[in-house]
């Protein structure tokens, strides 16, 4: 009888020890996504410029000296008697950025204030090229614009921080992968994305457990989006801590009892 009880105590202690040391069950994402089934892909949303956004803009053409006035550069230009210009030791300032002001404009060399709010980066390139041609500065300008301050903010269960992205396109899954591990105590079926656009702030709920997240208007992130990873209700109201405290105490007690019987059993058999 004692041996039978001892056996079950040891088994229970071993199971509890393994359970207490093993990681929590991993959360399941995209539960309803089926293998081999094609799904419609929503068109990628283009970033549209807002006040405070920053751009790097470069102008080039077949005659490089003609583009110099449109680029923020370091160097010198000489003018000879025939009116020809010669560039000397010119290097573009790669750190210079055009900032969209509160009126939605950037101040561009020779062209003055340009209204760019609401435009995509590609539309800014076309707009600047067209204006340079209209003013007859250059007949064949090539304008390259790059978004420079794509930033998102993360708060909640995955930590808190601001992340600057080196590209102008980012989706929610890429952002979560960049953030790192999301704890099992997070509420992944109600991730909040807060977006500020056109003077309004809107909160969206995204369920990471369903493929519907791909159809969310915030699946493709915009600059200055805020991602809030909420705690589960068991964490937010303190129930998780209370349950875990009681469970930990019970596990510790059973471990002590099982180890006591184990050592006693081994000691007797050793003698």
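^ Assign residues to that structure.
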């Amino acid at each position: 009888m004692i041996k039978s009880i001892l056996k079950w105590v040891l088994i229970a202690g071993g199971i509890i020890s393994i359970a207490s040391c093993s990681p929590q069950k991993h959360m399941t994402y995209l539960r309803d996504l089926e293998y081999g089934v094609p799904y419609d892909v929503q068109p990628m949303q283009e970033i549209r410029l807002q006040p405070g956004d920053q751009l790097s803009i470069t102008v080039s053409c077949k005659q490089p000296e003609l583009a110099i006035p449109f680029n923020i550069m370091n160097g010198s230009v000489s003018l000879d008697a025939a009116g020809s210009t010669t560039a000397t030791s010119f290097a573009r300032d790669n750190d210079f950025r055009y900032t969209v002001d509160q009126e939605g404009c950037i101040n561009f060399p020779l062209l003055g204030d340009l209204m760019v709010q609401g435009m995509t980066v590609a539309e800014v390139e076309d707009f600047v090229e067209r204006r340079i041609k209209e003013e007859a500065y250059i007949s064949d300008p090539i304008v390259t614009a790059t978004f420079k301050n794509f930033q998102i903010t993360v708060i909640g269960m995955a930590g808190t921080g601001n992340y600057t992205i080196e590209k102008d396109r980012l989706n929610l899954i890429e952002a979560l992968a960049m953030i790192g591990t999301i704890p099992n105590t997070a509420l992944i079926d109600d991730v909040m994305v807060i977006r500020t656009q056109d003077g309004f702030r809107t909160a969206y709920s995204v369920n990471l457990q369903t493929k519907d997240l791909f159809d969310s208007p915030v699946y493709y992130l915009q600059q200055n989006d805020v991602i809030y990873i909420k705690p589960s209700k068991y964490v937010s109201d303190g129930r998780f801590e209370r349950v875990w405290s009681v469970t930990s105490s019970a596990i510790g007690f059973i471990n002590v009892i099982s180890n006591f019987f184990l050592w006693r059993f081994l000691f007797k058999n050793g003698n």
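The first helix runs from residue 2 to 21.
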